[in-house]
Amino acid sequence: MKEYLILVCLSFMYLTNTALAQNNSPVIVIHGGAGDGIKKENFTADEEKSCMDALKKALEIGYGVLEAGGSCLDAVEKTIMFLEDSPFFNAGVGSVLNAEGKVELDASIMEGKTLKAGAVAGVNKIKNPILAARCIMEQSPHVMMIGEGAEVFAKSKGLTMVKPHHFITEKVKESWKKSQEVEQQKKSKIETPSKFGTVGCVALDKYGNLAAGTSTGGMMNKKFGRVGDSPIIGAGTYADNNSCAVSATGHGEYFIRSNAAFRVSALMQMKGLSLSEAVQGTMQFIRQLGGKGGLIALDKKGNLYMDFNTEGMFRGYIDAQKKMEIKIYK
């Protein structure tokens, strides 16, 4: 009888602890890039609807993973995979072209429980760079791999590989040709872009864990192997269960110099700021440097905050009350 009572008590404790470990309401936040070119007058009704529909579908995919008890890492991965496969954003299919008319893709992912992270940069044969980033995080001793080496590693792990033209759309080719004409007319070396189409996701799962991920095609007409903030842990992506998860979009050089994603976390942990205060403070610092872009962030309590200093930012969320909101313009 005594042994039976002990087993009953242990079972009750296990079930209670399991329930407590899963009592967090899942939350997911996404972005699809920011820029001064994101104005209502620059989009047709069909283009606007296509972007809104894609953002909605991405949120539903990620939230579906979380609601079913999946991890925040799985939610971030699946969400960004969908956005990479969508032609409406500058990541994966639909990525912008560099000065030579080629695609160069970057991505990163990070989990807040262990602070493990993975990233790829300058690749053009991995169908979903976000998968390669996670693979590096979980199946290698490294954090970042670049170029051909990253592609060899991805192929060795069984990831789907494609030809570089897989990512190039007719719309992007036309935009690149026009940008080349403008470059010739201005005879300028590097122009500041008006649209930053990076995609990103932050998520909180039922177990109280945070994760963040970011993926991009980089900057139109970029030269000399340029890499922005998206694959840089602490600049474009950061997650820590003790504070928040962050994904950035914008003129990457400024986000690297300000260590933007980590700065949000540091302001919360070291200065005791709230999530909104930390994001606002970080964006103010970026403004002072002369940078443009935006941040999405989510804390361990399920609070979310988005901020940007451009005309628009593709963005959306599903919060702890299951409320969905999607916006594009200011």
Q: TL;DR of this structure?
A:
With 330 residues, this protein is of the alpha+beta class. It is built from nine helices and 13 strands. The chain has a single domain, classed as Glutamine Phosphoribosylpyrophosphate, subunit 1, domain 1, CATH 3.60.20.30.
Please provide a written account of the structure:
- The protein is α+β, with helices and mostly antiparallel strands and 330 residues long.
- It has a single domain (35-329), classed as (Glycosyl)asparaginase (Glutamine Phosphoribosylpyrophosphate, subunit 1, domain 1, 4-Layer Sandwich).
- Helix content is 39%, strand content 23%.
- The protein has nine helices and 13 strands.
- Strands 1, 2, 3, 4, 5, 6, 7, 12 and 13 form a nine-stranded mixed beta sheet that branches.
- A hairpin with a 5-residue loop joins strand 12 (312-318) and strand 13.
- Helix 2 (45-67) runs antiparallel to helix 3 (72-85) and helix 8 (260-271) packs across helix 9 (275-289).
- It is globular, with a radius of gyration of 20 Å.
- The termini are far apart.
- Mean pLDDT is 91; it is low at 4-21 and 188-193.
